[in-house]
Design a protein that fits this description.
The complex is a heterodimer of chains A (323) and B (516).
Chain A: H1 2-8, H2 10-29, H3 36-61, H4 69-85, H5 90-113, H6 119-137, E1 143-144, H7 148-155, E2 157-158, E3 161-162, H8 163-181, H9 183-193, H10 195-200, H11 205-231, E4 233-234, H12 242-252, H13 264-284, H14 288-319
Antiparallel strand pairs in A: 1-4, 2-3
Chain B: H1 13-19, E1 24-35, E2 38-49, E3 53-57, H2 64-71, E4 79-84, E5 87-89, H3 94-99, E6 102-105, H4 117-121, H5 136-149, H6 165-178, E7 183-187, H7 195-210, E8 214-218, H8 222-228, E9 231-236, E10 239-245, H9 251-259, E11 277-286, E12 290-298, E13 302-307, H10 313-320, E14 328-333, E15 336-338, H11 343-348, E16 351-354, H12 358-362, H13 369-373, E17 382-383, E18 386-387, H14 389-402, H15 419-432, E19 437-441, H16 449-464, E20 468-472, H17 476-482, E21 485-490, E22 493-499, H18 505-512
Parallel strand pairs in B: 3-8, 3-9, 6-7, 7-8, 13-20, 13-21, 16-19, 19-20
Antiparallel strand pairs in B: 1-2, 1-4, 4-5, 9-10, 11-12, 11-14, 14-15, 17-18, 21-22
Classes of the chains: A mainly alpha (323), B alpha/beta (516).
């Protein structure tokens, strides 16, 4: 029984071992790496990708993909910044930012569920549309300088833990609960596993899918809030390539791009691995060009190992070692 | 720019037919296959003569597939000997098996739908001219030649997509023949075919037999064995039970050999008193699928729907369930006229649909047994969208016990269950939802004899509790054995309604073929 459990969870274990290996390597290479302040730094830097990756996890488990998250971050950011500059109350401005994100996600969802567009196409379109509107909205120039009240979202601390990290932790606990203990979560797995069967079981698959994309958009909006507060500036070119970071984190975390399988804890580990790589490579003094090569290679390697493990599992299943 | 000559189709057949039937094409001796922890095959010997149809019979998990997989090179034996035409051989890969002249036709066909029949037959072995272009004429005429040698008249230049499953199977057969297959393995070839298509397939099999091809035929359908088989070998729990000449044995004996117990009745229908009308359909129409369908259904009854593939049976089920839109017509459920425009509505009105294809439409294979059982009824176990784990577990457990679903735990993925147990999970899903109008589309397809009877008994239990069942089936004995009334469909409409007492196989078939 124990052995079974171990093999069942081998995928999760693998990612976790990866996290430890990466940590160990940088610990050896740089004495500064494993200090509290640097770890906090990593968590804070990773928090933006972390927030986006939560939405992406839902989307990918439901056998979809969202390429527009980066552009939505930019659009939500500039709308938020505009609202702050117009001296709207901070909570209202934040709600506006989240709302814009949710709206973009909603239209993604509607196009995919009711327009029957492939997710790749619908969100590819939105990627360009949202970016374009963002550029148009503030005429291509960044907006900077916000009140301390707003910036405390990024700079604040509770018990020496930066507030973005706290937001991230709360979000991950919430997302985990939603995936495991609610109908929305169960239906997300069901749709990703077999949409036809889910539909024929009486599940309103279109509505669930729309909800998931709207949620993903809203979380991009939340990422925009954190990013704007941290940089004290909103730029229409913010969030470039964020979709790839998020997808990479989700995939490294063991969620299958084919849908139906995946965990939120896996995504968290994926996010941390990405964050540690970025931070560690900087500390060691690897150039940003080389960093891209290294990170890309890690993604490919992670998926290769994942496939090997899965294949192994299938063989073990076929041989009747595990059930 | 390789020049691979297309081998002369069926060139060696005359040779075999002359010295048949005494030549032993294949001898598998004392085959043993051990998977870690499980003995899948234990000292199984099996022989196959040129020009015979040798049926392999056994419940799911008896070892049939393992034996066939060893022969096709998909897995390797642990112990034992394989002798092919008097030469001991080792089959270590599917490619090797192909080289040795062993062809296999899988249940899931391996054709490329967008390519033509001829292109599929010679896929990867196309003959090219000096500039590397495919010689289409040679390709077509060779393909036509092989197909007509097994008595199939189709246009080889049509994409495979445009052919029915039966014809696709024969294209697979032709492909195997083009590879000079001397031994052909057919794994449940008739499971997706209608009666006429089966007749056609059997015609082809007889032709192959005349030509001296040795055929291993796996099937769950007992009556087929007597129609097409020469010898039958029964496996149970990885062991050889025995081999019989078909003309010397009986269905009863075979069933006994398979399950080691006598099945008292293959179709144990207990008729219950017909209750009130629960569903009435009037003048249902859907362009190109359904024409003027009217019928009624009462509590406690099993209404059988028979008809050939493409007669509109499944289309009717899908329309009733809201999976396909209807153009006109009325559906009255429990006295109220209802518009069903999505499966969601249908489920709310108490309908449950056990689809023809469990794996692609009935189950989420990546989810656990528990999750599949409660998939339709989560509303009943959740408040404000939050699922009560305890109640859900309890529900799933009670159905696993009640339906005797064989699974190590609630959390086992359904993917790993056998066909019969998967079907029970689908049934549990609708029971959990408290559906009272069940549509069973091919309820026992691909399910072994033992589980079949269990499914029938569950149907009895359901009707006794006042549930109404619509049962669509291609298996005539099943329709006749289990239904209280039978509707026969032909060309998208109902041509006849028979009471079970007045129905015979011949009569039903006559109507299904359009001959009144």
């Amino acid at each position: 029984m124990k052995k079974e459990l171990l093999i069942q969870n081998s995928r999760q274990l693998g990612t976790f071992v990866g996290l430890i290996v990466v940590t160990a390597v940088f610990w050896i290479l740089s004495p500064y790496f494993l200090t509290i302040s640097n770890l906090m730094n990593i968590a804070e830097q990773a928090s933006i990708n972390a927030v986006i990756a939560v939405g992406m996890t839902f989307v990918i488990i439901a056998a979809g993909i969202d390429l527009s998250v980066g552009s939505i971050v930019a659009l939500s950011g500039v709308v938020l910044a505009g609202a702050l500059q117009a001296s709207l109350p901070v909570p209202v401005a934040i709600l506006l930012g989240l709302g814009v994100g949710a709206l973009c996600g909603l239209s993604n969802g509607l196009l995919i569920s009711f327009g029957r567009l492939p997710p790749f196409i619908a969100t590819l379109g939105m990627m360009s549309v949202a970016r374009g509107i963002a550029l148009f909205y503030i005429d291509g120039r960044p907006v900077s300088g916000f009140s301390a009240e707003f910036r405390s979202l990024a700079t604040g601390e509770i018990a020496r833990i930066p507030s973005p990290v706290i937001i991230m932790i709360v979000l991950y606990i919430l997302a985990h609960c939603i995936l495991h203990w609610t109908k929305l979560g169960r239906y997300t797995y069901a749709i990703g596993g077999n949409e036809e069967a889910a539909n024929l079981s009486g599940i309103n698959t279109r509505m669930i899918k729309t909800t998931i994309y709207a949620l993903c958009g809203m979380l991009s909006g939340l990422a925009a809030v954190l990013l704007t507060a941290r940089l004290n500036s909103a730029q229409p070119i913010a969030g470039l390539m964020y979709e790839l970071d998020a997808i990479a984190a989700v995939v490294i975390g063991g969620t299958s791009l084919l849908g139906g399988e995946g965990t939120i804890s896996g995504t968290l580990i994926g996010v941390l691995i990405m964050g540690i790589l970025r931070n560690g490579l900087n500390l060691v003094g690897v150039s940003s060009f080389t960093q891209q090569v290294v990170i890309g290679s890690v993604i490919i390697l992670a998926v290769l190992i994942d496939m090997a493990v899965r294949k192994d599992r299938t063989i073990l299943l076929a041989k009747g070692i595990i059930k | 720019m390789t020049k691979t000559p297309i081998r002369g189709p069926c060139s060696d057949f005359n040779f075999y037919s002359k010295i048949m039937p005494n030549i032993t094409a294949l001898h598998m001796r004392h085959i043993r296959k051990v998977f870690p922890g499980v003995v899948a095959l234990d000292d199984v010997s099996f022989d196959l003569k040129a020009g015979e149809v040798h049926v392999l019979l056994g419940e799911n998990g008896a070892g049939k597939s393992t034996l066939v997989k060893i022969l096709s090179g998909a897995i390797q034996k642990t112990d034992g000997e394989i002798v092919l035409f008097d030469n001991p051989v080792e089959i270590d890969s599917p490619k090797q098996a192909q080289k040795l002249g062993i062809g296999i036709i899988y249940q899931e066909l391996n054709l490329v739908p967008s390519l033509t029949a001829a292109e599929n037959i010679f896929l990867g072995r196309e003959r090219t001219n000096s500039v590397g272009l495919i010689e289409k004429h040679t390709l077509l005429s060779s393909a036509q030649h092989i197909l007509s040698s097994i008595g199939l008249q189709i246009d080889c230049d049509q994409p495979v997509r445009s052919f029915g499953i039966a014809q696709r199977q024969m294209i697979e057969v032709a492909k195997a023949l083009s590879l000079d297959a001397r031994i052909l393995i057919m794994d449940e070839p008739t499971s997706a075919l209608s009666e006429t298509e089966i007749k056609q397939l059997f015609g082809v099999i007889r032709k192959l037999r005349e030509k001296g091809v040795a055929i291993i035929y796996i099937s769950h359908r007992l009556q087929e064995i007597f129609e097409i088989g020469d010898r039958v070998t029964v496996l149970r729990d990885g062991k050889l039970v025995g081999t019989r000449m078909v003309y010397e044995t009986s269905q009863a004996e075979l069933v006994k050999m398979m399950v080691n117990r006598e099945l008292k009745e293959q179709y144990p229908r207990h008729r219950t008193d017909r209750g009130e009308e629960i569903l009435r359909v009037e003048k249902l129409n859907r362009k190109g699928a359904l024409r003027d369908i009217s019928f009624s259904l009462h509590r406690g009854e099993i209404l059988g729907i028979s008809g050939l593939l493409g007669s509109g049976r499944t289309e009717l089920a899908r329309a009733l369930f809201g999976a396909d839109r209807i153009d006109s017509g009325e559906i009255v459920i429990k006295g109220k006229c209802r518009k069903i425009n999505s499966p969601r509505t249908a489920v709310k009105l108490g309908l449950g649909f056990l689809t023809e294809d469990r794996k692609s439409q009935g189950l989420v294979l990546s989810l656990s047994v528990k999750d599949n059982i409660t998939l339709s009824s989560l509303d009943l176990f959740s408040r404000l969208g939050v699922i009560s784990n305890k109640r859900e577990e309890r529900e799933a457990k009670s159905f696993i016990e009640q339906l005797r679903i064989k699974t190590p735990s609630n959390h086992q993925k359904v993917l790993n269950l056998s066909g019969g147990n998967q079907q029970k999970v689908v049934l549990a899903k609708w029971l959990s939802r408290k559906a009272d109008i069940f549509i069973f589309d091919e309820p026992t397809r691909g399910i072994d004899v033992g589980s079949k009877v269990e499914i029938y008994q569950l149907m009895n239990q359901l009707t006794a509790e006042g549930v109404a069942i619509i049962m669509i089936s291609s298996e005539l004995p099943e329709v006749l054995g289990m239904s209280d009334r039978i509707l026969i469909m032909y060309q998208h409409t109902i041509v006849c309604e028979l009471k079970s007492e007045e129905a015979t196989q011949e009569r039903v078939m006559r109507y299904a073929l359009g001959a009144a």
